[in-house]
Amino acid sequence: MSDIFCFLKKELIRRHIHCSAECIQKVTKKLKKGLDKCDEILYSNQRTDLKVNFKEIESKFLNRI
Q1: Residue 57: pLDDT above 80?
Q2: Beta-carbon neighbour count of residue 24 at 10 Å?
Q3: 13: helix, coil or strand?
Q4: How does DSSP classify residue 37?
Q5: For residue range 8-55, what is the model confidence (pLDDT) as tens digits?
Q6: pLDDT of residue 41
Q7: What pLDDT is stored for residue 19 in this prediction?
Q8: In terms of domain of life, where is this protein from (predicted)?
Q9: For a disulfide at 54, which of 33, 38, 45, 48, Cβ 3.0-4.6 Å?
Q10: Domain boundaries, the chain
Q11: E strand intervals along the chain
């Protein structure tokens, strides 16, 4: 697994947000491509739709490097 994938998974778990590996992979691909609209990705939990600000997560990841 890529560093970005692992970082996103840990960050989502820390925020108590549960989503599928496929969703994390989609976001990882978009982050790798450098797209700015990662925060528009929505994924659904069985109970509710959750929106994550992936720009914030991306900046935290980039600050680690």
Answers
A1: no
A2: 20
A3: helix
A4: -
A5: 788 888 887 777 888 878 877 777 765 545 555 544 444 444 556 666
A6: 53
A7: 76
A8: Bacteria
A9: 38
A10: 3-64
A11: 42-44, 49-51
Tell me whether residue 4 is exposed, middle or buried, using C-beta atoms within 10 angstroms of its C-beta: 0 to 12, 13 to 18, 19 or more: buried
- pLDDT for residue 63: 74
Give the separation between CA 61 and CA 49, rounded to whole angstroms: 24
Helix (H, G, I), strand (E, B) or coil at 12: helix
Residue type, 62: L
CA distance 26 to 63: 21
Q: Which two tokens stand for residue 45?
A: 């939990």
What is the spatial distance between Cα 56 and Cα 15, in angstroms, rounded to a whole number?
Answer: 13
